[in-house]
Amino acid sequence: MRSYGQNCALAKSLDVIGDRWTLLIVRELMIRDGCRYTDLRNGLPGIATNLLAERLSELEKAGLVTREAAPPPIATTLFRLTQRGKELEPVIAALGRWGAPLLTGTAGKDEFCDHWVILPLRLYVRDKSPRERPVRIGLRAGKELVTVETVGDGSVRVESRRAPNPDAVIEGTPQQILALLTGKASLADAQAKGLRYEGDVKVVRRFAGR
Question: What CATH number does the domain located at 9-103 have?
Answer without folding.
Answer: 1.10.10.10
